[in-house]
Amino acid sequence: MRPFLLLASRPEDEAADDEYAAFLRATGLDESGLRRIRLEAGPLPPLDLDDYAGVFLGGGPFNSSDPAEGKSAVQRRVEAELSALLDEVVARDLPFLGACYGIGTLGVHQGGVVDRTHGEPVSCVPVSLTGAGRVDPLLAGMPEVFDALVGHKEACRVLPPSAVLLATSAGCPVQMFRVGRNVYATQFHPELDVAGVVTRVRVYQHAGYFPPAEMEDLIARVSQAVVTEPSRVLANFVARYG
């Protein structure tokens, strides 16, 4: 079986390794079945996408809507590399699933509007499937409403014209969409469980997602969440394309 590929961009080793472990758990893959490239660490090596069953793009510190003058050289490089990769992914309709940063990246690539209108604090929110979502194979077995973990400064305000809306929520209208038959993105984190979000809260306490003095209260709140369904999206992706 061809492996899957995880493209990551978290510079903090603790957060990066915890994200990789979360994707391994949710997909049921081992390290030979889910290869990781850390985009922030250096230029993306030449890829033959035919070598992979599918591509995941994880979250990270970059925001697609950051002002151009404020983007670091690393962020500009990563954005250019991902844009070129998505040119091929979308043109060939290759299996792809971007989470959080992935929805901003794919949204911009496909002509949507990504800005800070619908940013959400770190929290657990109810996500609702649309009519298209209820019949999409990647959401097979999902309840029509499920709880998911979120935490993002930007979101897709205007759906790309090429996209089909699959999931929504009260605070963030675009929680998941599909382009073509096989290219997906989620705003919520399908890989995250409560332990994972607590790790990220601690790692990113000074990253502007919340006042650092409120960290322990935030951890206490999110620790009450019961999140069981979102990882099914990743398991379905592997079952469909593996």
Automatic annotation (TrEMBL):
<dbReference type="InterPro" id="IPR017926">
    <property type="entry name" value="GATASE"/>
</dbReference>
<feature type="domain" description="Glutamine amidotransferase">
    <location>
        <begin position="49"/>
        <end position="192"/>
    </location>
</feature>
<protein>
    <submittedName>
        <fullName>Glutamine amidotransferase</fullName>
    </submittedName>
</protein>
<dbReference type="GO" id="GO:0016740">
    <property type="term" value="F:transferase activity"/>
</dbReference>
<keyword id="KW-0315">Glutamine amidotransferase</keyword>
<keyword id="KW-0808">Transferase</keyword>
<dbReference type="GO" id="GO:0005829">
    <property type="term" value="C:cytosol"/>
</dbReference>
<dbReference type="Pfam" id="PF00117">
    <property type="entry name" value="GATase"/>
</dbReference>
<dbReference type="InterPro" id="IPR044992">
    <property type="entry name" value="ChyE-like"/>
</dbReference>
<dbReference type="InterPro" id="IPR029062">
    <property type="entry name" value="Class_I_gatase-like"/>
</dbReference>
